[in-house]
Amino acid sequence: MKFKADLEFAKTMDKNDPLKRFRTQFLFPKINGKRCIYFCGNSLGLQPVFTELHITTELKKWADYGVEGHFHNHEPWLSYHKLLKEGLSHIVGSNEDEVVAMGTLTSNIHILLTSFYRPNMNRFKILMEDGAFGSDTYAVESHVQLHDLDPEMAVIKLESRPNEFILHTEDIIAAIEAHKNEISVVFLGGINYYTGQVLDMEAITKHAHQYGIMVGFDLAHAVGNIELKLHDWDVDFATWCSYKYLNAGPGGIAGIFIHERHFTDRKIKRMAGWWGHEEETRFQMPKRFVPSYGADAWQQSNIPIFQAAALKASLDLFTAAKMHHLRTKSLLLTGYLLYLLQFVPKGRFEIITPLEDSQRGSQLSLYFENEGHKVFEELAKQGVVADWREPNVIRIAPAAMYNNYEDVYRFYEILKQILEK
């Protein structure tokens, strides 16, 4: 694609965008009476237009039927989680039985590590990135401590090379190789929240599996952002939140993936709950837990319906748009932004997100040596909703579902003006 640094080019791209209709399906906040440039979908996605209808439909069902809403013949609450499986499986690249909407991201990390972190005398270490999101670090270290192990000894933290921010695949592979007889679990962020780097999840999984190592991913910044093929990549487990690119609202219900080869593994232990019990006998309250088939066996409680309804409103849009189309547009949007950033004053910031298509999603991270927060505040005053991450990064995330090329161009104009001052 040959880009041009002018507004008419951006408008032409928008006119020819096959996904342009989806922009009208979202509600944009206003700043100073004008619709903002919203580049913060990597923190909280916009509200779909039909979210309110989905939630009020369930509120009315509650009002009209009370407890019988669990059995009402139109989308009964008893099986509501099943309505989300098609959309989730499309987004993460799995079979429907391998996914279920449940819990929160951090609670799911704990639930999954309970099942897949099985330390013994020889294999007791967890490999993770040093720059992981805080919750991942806290969860991993607490699980190590639950087994009376010292995190300093049992957690291997991958560090970037000197004067770099990203992790190289060969360095991750080398770390696995160096500790191949000690590692129990590799647990990494599929996309790093700070740099926006996409890891080669397939290569990492393949190498770790040579040594019988379990592999899981935190997909908080990957789900709904890039194309995932968790089943084909042979990933053991994964979890994600749904309030970022999946647009399910603040604190929205999360989800998990369990590869089907683990469904019948009797060695796996679970933090069992009644909703994970087999559906046929669940309400008979038998004394012994009999797991449901698939990822459903990891459920603990019945699904929060209003959160699930909000997620369904967004998943319907993803099913219509298709992830491969969204990924194509995403790369064009960030590619256009990379092109335009060539024309802003030099030396004020560094792009620390990898430039290669395969290693970036919808986010570009701009690293400022100084005055970064002042730039961020000025962007906000001029109608740009971005994200600041300590100590010195502005994260810009044009989401393919609702952002367009004019958004990117206008952001460039505003940033250029700020930096020229």
Description:
By secondary structure, the chain is α/β, with parallel strands linked by helices. The protein folds into 2 domains: 7-47 and 323-420, Aspartate Aminotransferase, domain 1; 55-319, Aspartate Aminotransferase, domain 2, CATH 3.40.640. 33% of the residues lie in helices and 14% in strands. The protein is built from 12 helices and 17 strands. It has a 7-stranded mixed sheet with strand order 6-12-11-10-9-7-8, sandwiched between helices. Strands 13-14-17-16 form a 4-stranded antiparallel sheet, covered by helices on one side. A two-stranded antiparallel ribbon has the order 1-5. The radius of gyration is 22 Å and the shape is globular. The mean pLDDT is 96.
Question: What is the strand content?
Answer: 5-15%
Q: Estimate the helix proportion, in percent.
A: 25-40%
Calculate Rg over CA atoms: 22 Å
- Which superfamily, in CATH terms, is the homologous superfamily of the largest domain? Type I PLP-dependent aspartate aminotransferase-like (Major domain)
Q: Count all strands and give the number.
A: 17
CATH architecture of the largest domain: 3-Layer(aba) Sandwich
CATH class descriptor of the largest domain = Alpha Beta
Counted up, domains total 2
Q: Overall pLDDT, averaged?
A: 96
Biggest β-sheet description: 7 strands, mixed
User: Would you list the SSEs in sequence order as H and E?
Assistant: HEEEEEHHEHEHHEHEHEEEHHEEHEEEH
CATH third-level topology of the largest domain: Aspartate Aminotransferase, domain 2
Strand order of the largest sheet: 6-12-11-10-9-7-8
* Count of helical regions: 12
- Structural class comes to alpha/beta
Distance between the termini: 32 Å
Q: State the low-pLDDT regions, or none.
A: none
Describe the global form: globular
Note the quaternary state here. single chain
